[in-house]
Amino acid sequence: MGKPRLIILVRHAQSEGNTNRAIHQVVPDHRVKLTDEGHKQAEEAGRRLRHLLKPDDTLQIFTSPYRRTRETTEGLLKTLTSTSEDGGPSPFSRSKIKLYEEPRLREQDFGNFQPCSAEMERMWKERADYGHFFYRIPNGESAADAYDRVSGFNESLWRQFGDKEFPSVLVLVTHGLMTRVFLMKWYHWSVEYFEDLRNVNHCEFVLMKMNQDSGKYILDSELRTWSEYKRQKQVEIARRNPSRRNTLSAFLQAAPSQAEKSPSITGRQWGGCPEGCTHNHEHIRREEIDPSLPPPAAEVDQPAENENDDHALGPHEPAAHAPVDGAADSQRLAPTKSVPSYLLAPGTSTSGDATPHEMPSDDEIESYPFPPQTSSRKAPEISQRSIATAMRRKPERKATPEDIERWTNESGMGRGKQADALGDEPELSSEEIEKAEKEDKSLRGSVY
């Protein structure tokens, strides 16, 4: 037949978690079972489904692997395939109904065992302010995460619809939020409309009928929304108390004057540290911590090459400077210690003159650090990064002809022979190696 003529989404029957939320603190969510009332609801759903189907319909059911949805499916099939109340046999045989568990239809993950009731109540309020679709449960999922896996399930369904033997009726036994997420993906609803939808009742049927002309599915069930619920409440209040009707005259009489208006009230404050944030994220000056410390030295007016470069001294360490002679350099500062030439950038020296870069001598390495500088000429600023890079730099030695010949002899290359990764000379010829390589690749090709 191809695409089914009818798709039915069913929310599970009443479970113990619906009557007592504290049970999720000790029982895993996927093991929560139905109540006695829930079993009755599941069996009643089977009777309603029987009246909804045609005698010649074929049936396929996908169910969430959670216990409450599997028990709902069993109760539904019990009355669907059993003898009717008037004594007539059922046109649907249990052996002819295709039943599959689909993990992608499972409930939104609420983070393993749930915390205490007070913390859960705080979390529900936080989710209401943040938004039901994007709010991610701690150690769990958001509705957006559930949307991703439902998208994959919908794609699988469309591939199965290509089978001409696909049953005429498809039933999905799942959860309340997953029903809304499934419809959101199918009909391309917005996030705002999804968050306006109210939950589906237990064992409520949501019908999607295929239009025979267009082949598209039309939503045949009316979903409840919070906006409509609020509007009905306002109408009910106005009906009970005519003086509070939403009219312009009543609004003008009840409107407070400008002087009586109270300041705006901020909403709840969420986020931050769990125990309350006591951290100070602002920069604290050194003298505010210890007034006895001297103020930091003035910065050199020469800009750095990169704003991310480190300074020669730490950001909070005061530097001792010596006065500099000369009117032109009256505002500039020079370090009191000289720096060995091998720690300078190429093309510079301790005197500031451009010189060829030289490698360190043994005397320079042993005598570092040098005594205080006596010259009045200033030295350029040297960053910590430049010093570290220079200290890691090692002398380079060019390879001599003797080295090249020795490496060639050791590796076996350059003598018309091949070597493997370890440098050992193979005993096989080049033709035999090429043949073995082709055989190896052919074996691997059958696996990868």
TrEMBL record:
Transmembrane segments: none annotated. Coiled coil: none annotated. Residues 253-267, 373-387 have a biased composition (Polar residues). InterPro entries: His_Pase_superF_clade-1 (IPR013078), His_PPase_superfam (IPR029033), PGM-Related (IPR052765). It holds the Pfam family His_Phos_1. Residues 253-448 are annotated as: Disordered. Residues 422-431 have a biased composition (Acidic residues). Gene3D superfamilies: Phosphoglycerate mutase-like. Residues 278-289, 397-408, 432-448 have a biased composition (Basic and acidic residues). CDD domains: HP_PGM_like. This is Phosphoglycerate mutase-like protein. It comes from Saxophila tyrrhenica. The lineage of its organism: Eukaryota, Fungi, Dikarya, Ascomycota, Pezizomycotina.
